[in-house]
Amino acid sequence: MNDPSTTKLDKTAAELGKAASKPGKAATEVGKTAVEAGRPTMEPALLRLLEMAHEAAQRAYAPYSGFRVGAAIRLTNGAIVTGVNVENASYGLTICAERSALVRAVSQFGPEMRVEAIAVANLNAAPSPPCGACRQVLAEFTEPEAVIIFPAADGPRAVPFHELLPLAFEIKAK
Length: 174
Description:
alpha+beta, Cytidine Deaminase, domain 2, 5 strands, 30% helix
């Protein structure tokens, strides 16, 4: 990430194809697959973030839908915080993995913390971009150029956060 000749988006999960979305793949194995295919590899720190999201998804509480999601966020201070979706019999009280991770980050580091990268993964091999509520809550703490990686219909996708929620609601705090 400190290499000025590349951008965060030059090394995306999308460039790795489906290999990066499979839990249990070692970073070197996924990187080798990408290199052999003639594609650039993902930045190791982002690949590790994606792996951590997969690991977290294994701890999700989803007895009603069976849809287990994990999120890993890297803060500007270098800390990585994970979260999982936690369902409730009263569906409206369910919390998504992305918000779970963010709430944990605020609890640990305070409201001044900022997010520089986000990875979302699920154990269902299904698309799971962040929902609208997660996008809006993340917008409050996420750098506009932060990379967010998530499973899309055509495979893993990585975009800068500002493209995921281009017109976030804003209000100036007093």
